[in-house]
């Protein structure tokens, strides 16, 4: 009976160069230091140095030179199977195919976007996805007042598409297009004929849409405050705009692209805003954790293809 002595208790995984395990596995397979050196891409002196470090780390000769080559000691024979499995596991992990195949993907892509996005560019995006990723699903989430950054960092949301000025640190962004604000009012509104002056504009009843997490309301509120325009109505959804405008005397300030989707709605007219409201940029935002993720990269490329400068 041979006695296997224990590894030095000072040996810990954090103190062991894991490259030495590859060296160990190569010597076990080749039974020759020179051949093992070629296998792992080391010079003969570097291989001899690595073997010396292995022997010191495990407090055992590990391999003994014989007429039949470098033969493992009993202790090395005991170590060989688990070390070989560990090396194979790491090698297989590095060979995992990270490509994304949209044709066979069954994942769910999650977006943050307002109902502006749902009305303006989601239809075009869905049309493209139905052809290129027919098995994938789409989930548009309500933008929360707080926590959208954490949700995207955790991977609960893939992309935020729209006007999100607060998504900065820790996020990448890509500009898609710029937009500006215009006004919608009832076609037979008393002010619907001819140009509207700033004074007349201040006397009208104004409605604004307040969507959490986006910059639309803030941009309008700053411009209104500058001209001391009162806000008579605040609503949380853009989709209510056509009904409100067509049936009341309210004037609503909205992005131009959204206003154009309402252009054919009966009884609505679009006019230029008499006061200056800065234009804004629509962007897609993603967290830095997913910058190199194949599925996220494919999705971003599709969004850019559908919306960039269109």
Give structural notes.
- With 310 residues, this protein is α/β, with parallel strands linked by helices.
- It has 3 domains: 13-94, Winged helix-like DNA-binding domain superfamily/Winged helix DNA-binding domain (Arc Repressor Mutant, subunit A, Orthogonal Bundle), CATH 1.10.10; 108-177 and 281-307, D-Maltodextrin-Binding Protein, domain 2 (3-Layer(aba) Sandwich); 181-278, Periplasmic binding protein-like II (D-Maltodextrin-Binding Protein, domain 2), CATH 3.40.190.
- The chain is built from 12 helices and 12 strands.
- It has a 5-stranded mixed β-sheet with strand order 4-3-5-12-6. A 5-stranded mixed β-sheet has the order 9-8-10-7-11. A two-stranded antiparallel ribbon has the order 1-2.
- Helix 1 crosses helix 3 (44-58), helix 1 crosses helix 4 (74-94) and helix 2 packs across helix 3 (44-58).
- Please tally the helical runs, counting DSSP H or I stretches of 4 or more residues: 12
CATH structural architecture of the largest domain = 3-Layer(aba) Sandwich
CATH first level of the largest domain: which class? Alpha Beta
Total number of strands: 12
Overall shape: rod-shaped
Distance between the termini: 80 Å
Rounded to an integer in angstroms, the radius of gyration calculated over CA atoms is: 33 Å
Poorly predicted segments: 1-11
Strand percentage: 15-25%
Q: Please estimate the helix content.
A: 25-40%
């Amino acid at each position: 009976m041979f006695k296997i002595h224990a590894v030095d208790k000072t040996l810990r995984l954090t103190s062991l160069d894991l490259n030495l395990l590859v060296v160990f596995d190569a010597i076990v397979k080749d039974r020759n230091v020179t051949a093992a050196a070629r296998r792992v891409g080391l010079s003969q002196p570097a291989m001899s140095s690595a073997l010396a470090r292995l022997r010191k780390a495990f407090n055992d000769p590990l391999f003994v030179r014989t007429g039949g080559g470098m033969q493992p000691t009993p202790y090395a024979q005991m170590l060989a199977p688990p070390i070989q499995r560990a090396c194979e596991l790491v090698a297989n992990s590095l060979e995992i195919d990270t490509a994304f195949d949209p044709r066979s993907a069954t994942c769910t892509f999650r977006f943050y976007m307002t109902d502006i996005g749902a009305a303006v560019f989601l239809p075009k995006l869905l049309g493209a996805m139905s052809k290129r990723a027919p098995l994938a699903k789409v989930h548009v989430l309500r933008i929360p007042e707080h926590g959208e950054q954490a949700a995207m960092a955790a991977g609960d949301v893939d992309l935020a598409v729209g006007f999100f000025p607060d998504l900065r640190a820790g996020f990448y962004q890509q500009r898609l297009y710029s937009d500006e604000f215009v006004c919608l009012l009832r076609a037979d509104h008393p002010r619907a004929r001819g140009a509207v002056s700033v004074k007349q504009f201040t006397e009208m009843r104004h409605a604004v849409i307040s969507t959490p997490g986006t910059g639309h309301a803030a941009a309008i509120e700053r411009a209104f405050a500058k001209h001391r325009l009162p806000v008579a109505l605040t609503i949380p959804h853009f989709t209510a705009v056509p009904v409100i405008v067509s049936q009341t005397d309210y004037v609503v300030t909205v992005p131009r692209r959204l206003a154009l989707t309402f252009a054919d709605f009966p009884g609505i007219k679009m006019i230029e805003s008499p006061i200056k409201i800065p234009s804004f940029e629509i962007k897609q935002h993603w967290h830095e954790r997913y910058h190199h993720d194949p599925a996220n990269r494919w999705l971003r490329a599709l969004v850019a293809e559908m919306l960039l400068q269109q």
